[in-house]
Design goal:
Elements (H helix, E strand, L loop, with lengths): L2 H6 L7 E4 L15 H14 L3 E4 L27 H13 L3 E6 L9 H8 L11 E2 L20 E4 L4 E4 L14 H17 L3 E4 L2 H5 L13 H15 L4 E4 L5 H5 L12 E3 L1 H13 L3 H9 L8 E5 L6 E2 L5 H11 L6 E2 L3 E2 L3 H4 L4 H13 L3 E5 L56 H6 L4 H14 L1 H5 L1 E4 L7 E8 L2 E8 L5 E6 L8 E4 L5 E3 L4 E6 L4 E7 L8
Parallel strand pairs: 1-2, 1-14, 2-3, 3-7, 7-8, 8-9, 9-10, 10-14
Antiparallel strand pairs: 4-6, 5-6, 11-13, 12-13, 15-16, 16-17, 17-22, 18-21, 19-20, 19-22
Helix pairs in contact: 2-3, 5-7, 9-10, 9-11, 13-15
The structure holds alpha-D-glucopyranose (GLC).
């Protein structure tokens, strides 16, 4: 592998950090986070080891779906700052070598978007065909309402238009008609605009729904929707060769693979591994490595320059929709027994630490997995300090509370009136007096310090990001053992899902007598006899080990 490749394909070993500007840091004291505030915190993210910031939607919005309901694709929500302040933030990030990507939400607009206002006003409107209309809601339309607690149908009658329109999500989010070439062109312009301002790509919202044309009247006559995704990617790459599309595709593996495109990966650059994430929780619930190991073995290899994106939590519910009913129930029983913790019958509106009863060993185990499993790790703000959820907030808002910077008023997030904060701060056990950045920064044993170590090691081990992976067979069902090999280097990682210590016997092909295994997350050197080795793990313990040959110098 040439060194230059590793820099060109920067996303392969990136550390992505997702945040919502409005809940990150408020610089002007009005109670709402802003771009000036975020710019002041870029140094914190850089010191942690973050290499790419993913901005959740920051566009003008009536904010009825946390900004995923947009009224102007070319604007900045005035609560968050001006276009100038957005660009200043990009400049500060660039100075630190941090790339920035943003949510691209073009499956739908807000119903208040001027395009929809125009579309509904008259059948003659130039925007009428930018949305999907019907005189009668089709019986054979797309199945599956995404938010079943609030919506009963995918079609809503609009008085003004005298027709029904398609909405995959809330009824205030009418779906754009991507079968219409004018809509496709406009989406390209949206991409072009933000790329030109300095973004390095997009997290593409709801990709399968975006490409869906079942709602279109002449669906059979339409060109392959994947041709559109290919066009989008080609355009993106022409404008900026290093830009990426990170797609939200929550489908079984074989279906997700189609969104990477052909063997060279000409569609999405990265897809989130929703299946691996759900199986990880099943493994945690069962205290057995099996479900996760199975997912890793099943997961198809992505095209050469593409990558999976791994994650533990995000801004939505922890969806368990791809588990069987019985498996989902096991996870509910372990991590969210109470109905108020569950959402839509398929997920949990919780953050990780409270689900694991705040057990520090177990929490560390999970992040060690995140950084050592194959795929680009994506963190959701606050995970690095072990923030908890606030179940008294509605729906998914339970996990969208202000970042906890210190134990000051408003968690140091804002100097504004606590009554006027954009979202209330978490109270109780996970409140800012116990969980905050300032105290984590001071404590070498904090979760944040652990996260920094994991990030440093992950960036130092090209095998983890670039290598060939193998789940290793052994006798201990509570342990996941895997190895990554690249250019003669080998890293082995072990994770114990159970609450008791365990000893694991492994055979490491290609490792010879005289080689040593050097611990990367702690001290320790284990001699290997003839490719065989026995390794001890603490309760919920994890180890990363580098194979070091005789005479080879290892720098920790
Ligand atoms: C995606 C987002 C979610 C949003 C939905 C509609 O699934 O992750 O937060 O509500 O799209 O845009």
């Amino acid at each position: 592998m040439k060194l230059s490749h590793t820099a060109d394909l920067w996303w392969k070993n990136a550390v992505v950090y997702c945040l919502d500007v409005e809940t990150f840091f408020d610089a002007n004291g009005d109670g709402c986070g802003d771009f000036r505030g975020l710019a002041q915190r870029v140094g914190y993210l850089d010191e942690m080891g973050v290499t790419c910031i993913w901005l959740m939607p920051f566009y003008p919005t009536p904010d009825r779906d946390d900004g995923y309901d947009i009224t102007d694709f070319y604007g900045v929500d005035s609560r968050l700052g001006t276009g100038g302040e957005f660009v200043e933030f990009l400049q500060v990030a660039r100075d630190r070598g941090i790339r920035v990507i943003a949510d691209l939400v073009v499956n739908h607009t807000s119903s208040r978007h001027p395009w929809f206002q125009s579309a509904r006003s008259s059948p003659e409107s130039p925007h009428r065909d930018w949305y999907v209309w019907r005189d009668k809601p089709p019986a054979d339309g797309p199945e599956g309402v995404v938010f079943p607690d609030q919506e009963k149908s995918l079609w809503e009658y609009d008085e003004q238009a005298g027709q029904y329109y398609l909405h995959r999500f809330y009824k205030h989010q009418p779906d754009l008609n991507v079968a219409n070439p004018a809509v496709r062109d406009e989406i390209m312009r949206v991409l072009g605009y933000w790329l030109h301002l300095g973004l390095s790509g997009f997290r593409v919202d709801a990709v399968p729904f975006l490409l869906e044309t079942d709602g279109a009247l002449d669906a059979e006559d339409l060109p392959d929707p994947h041709a559109y995704l290919r066009d989008l990617r080609a355009y993106l790459s022409r404008r900026n060769g290093e830009a990426v599309l990170l797609g939200e595709v929550n489908l079984p593996y074989p279906d997700t693979m189609r969104f990477f495109g052909d063997e060279d990966g000409d569609e999405l650059t990265m897809c989130f591994d929703f299946i691996g994430m759900q199986r990880l929780y099943l493994s945690l619930a069962r205290q057995q490595a099996g479900p996760l190991a199975e997912a890793l073995r099943e997961r198809p290899e992505q095209p050469k320059d593409a990558h999976w994106a791994t994650f533990v939590r995000n801004h939505d519910e922890l969806t368990l929709d791809k588990l069987s009913e019985q498996e989902r129930q096991e996870v509910f029983d372990a991590f969210g027994r109470e109905p108020r913790m569950q959402l839509y019958g398929r997920g949990l509106r919780r953050r990780l630490p409270p689900m694991l009863d705040g057990d520090p060993d177990r929490i560390r185990l999970v992040y060690s997995l995140l950084f050592s499993l194959p795929g680009t790790p994506v963190l959701f703000y606050g995970e690095e300090i072990g923030m908890g959820e606030e179940l008294s907030f509605e729906g998914r808002n339970a996990v969208r509370t202000p970042m906890q910077w210190s134990d000051d008023d408003n968690a140091g997030f804002s100097t504004g009136d606590p009554e006027k904060l954009v979202a209330p701060v978490v109270q109780g056990e996970y409140g800012p007096s116990k969980v905050n950045v300032a105290s984590h920064l001071r404590d070498p044993h904090s979760l944040l310090s652990w996260m920094k170590l994991l990030i440093r090691r992950y960036r130092q081990c090209p095998e983890l990001a670039w290598g060939r992976y193998e789940v290793l067979p052994h006798e201990a069902e509570q342990v996941l053992a895997h190895r990554a090999d690249q250019d003669g280097g080998t890293v082995v990682a072990l994770h114990n899902f159970a609450g008791e210590p365990v000893e694991v016997a492994l055979r490491l092909d290609g490792v010879e007598s005289g080689d040593r295994l050097v611990d990367l997350l702690g001290d320790g050197v284990t001699p290997v006899g003839d490719g065989r080795v026995s390794l001890r793990l603490d309760r919920y313990g994890c180890r990363w080990l580098r194979v070091v040959k005789p005479g080879e110098v290892f720098l920790p």
